[in-house]
Amino acid sequence: MTVLQTNPSAISDYARDMGARVEAFVREVVVPYEKDPRRDHHGAPTDELVMEMREKARAAGVLTPHIRDDGSHLTQRETAYVLIKSGLSPLGPLACNTFAPDEGNMYLIGHVGSPELKERFLDKLIDGTARSAFFMTEPADWGGAGSDPSMMKTTCRRDGNHWIVNGRKTFITGAQGAKVGIVMAASEEEDTKGGACMFLVDLPDEAIRIDEIPNTIDSSMPGGHATLTLDNLRIPADQMLGQPGEGFKYAQVRLSPARLSHCMRWLGACIRAHEIATDYACRREAFGKLLIDHEGVGFMLAQNKILIEQSELMIDWCASVLDTGSLGTVESSMTKVSVSEAMMTIADNCVQVMGGTGVTDRTIVEQVFREVRAFRIYDGPTEVHKWSLAKKIKREWKQAQEA
Q1: How does it assemble (predicted)?
Q2: What is the fold of 132-241?
C-alpha cells in the first residue's frame, strides 16, 4: 500500500518511520482484537478493551503518533500519512489515540488553551489515559443547533467568577465514560454580543445528565452518541477556552482539521476493506472463472482503486492548504464531500463483490460500510456542504459581475 506519494518530500523521515510503525502495529496487534467480545450495548469497544490496546500502543511507541514527545504536532500532510495507516482497522484509531472526537479536541486545546488548561486537560488526552467529548449539537425537537450553529439554544451567563450553563445537547460522541468535556453555549452577556463561549469541564459532572444513548448505525466509538441535559452546570471562569463570545471562531479552528482527519481514518478503513474484497474476488470462483475475471466484479474493484487514489489526492491537497496556516474551511468542505461519497462507493462495492459474506461480521467490510454511511452525515452532511459551496459560487459570480 502506498499513501500520499504525490509529494514525498512533504513527509519527514520521522513521519515516514512513525507511519510504518503504526501500520505494522495495526495489522499485527490491533486486527486480532476485531473479534474481541468486549463491546457495549451498541457494539462499540469497551473502555477496558480500548485501554488494553493503548497500553500495547504505548509499549510499541505508537500512542498519539501525530504529536511528538515535545508536544509539537506533525504537519497536516504528515498527520494524513500516519492517520490513514491508523485507520486500517476500525479499532486502530482507538488503539493509537488518533480517533474522534479526541484528536480534534487535542488540536483545539493545543491551539487555544492556556498553559494551565493544557496541563490540566490536554496532557491526559495526549497520554491516552482519558477520553473527551465535544458538546455542540442540540436536539431537533428542541429547535436547537445542528448543522446551523447559529440556532444554538444552550446558554451561559456570568455568576461571579463562574459561568452557569443550561441547555440540551445530542449526538455527543463519547460522552459516557469521558473525563474531559468541551461545552459550547450561546452567551447571554451583552459584552459578548450574542457570541458563543467554550468551556473545558471535568467529567462526569452531576449537572450533566445523560438522557439517552441510542443505538446507531455506526459502532466504532466508545460511549455512543448521547443526548444530555445541562442543568445549571457551574464552571469556573478560568476554565473558559479562549475569550468570551469567541466560541464560533474557535469552532472553525477545530472544524477543518477534524473534517480532514475523519477523511484520513476512513480512507484507511476503506483501503483495508478493498484489500479484503480483492482477496475474496481473486480466490472465489463462479461460472467457471475467478470472480475478478467477471467484468461486473473486476470493474467495481477498478473503480475502488481509482477512488482511493482520488481521495488521497484530495486529502493531500487540503492538508497542504491547512499547512499554510489557512483555516481551509472551503477546502475541507469540498474534501469532506468528495472523500465521504467516494468511501461510500468503495464500501458498497466491497460488500457487493463479497456477496453474502460481505453482509456478515466474518470480516470488517460490513462494519466499514456502516461507519462510512454515518460519516456522510457527521461533521456536516454532504448536502449542507454543497449548499454552502453553492452560496460561495453565487457570491463570487456577483462579485465578478460588479467588477
Answers
A1: Homodimer.
A2: Butyryl-CoA Dehydrogenase, subunit A; domain 2 (2.40.110)
3-state secondary structure (DSSP) of residue 279: helix
In tens, the pLDDT along 13-51 reads 999 999 999 999 999 999 999 999 999 888 899 999 999
The CA-to-CA distance between both ends of the chain, in Å, stands at 48
The ranges assigned to domains in the chain are 8-99, 132-241, 248-402
Cα separation, 323 vs 317, whole angstroms: 10
Instruction: Say whether 337 sits in a helix, a strand or coil.
Output: helix
Joined grid coordinates for residue 21:
510503525
CB 365 within 8 A of CB 351: yes
pTM over 0.85: yes
Measure the CA–CA gap between 37 and 219, rounded to whole angstroms.
Answer: 13
Q: 272 by DSSP, 3-state: which? A: helix
- Could you give the 3-state DSSP secondary structure of residue 72? coil
- Which residue, 236, 225, 169, 144, is CA-closest to 199? 236
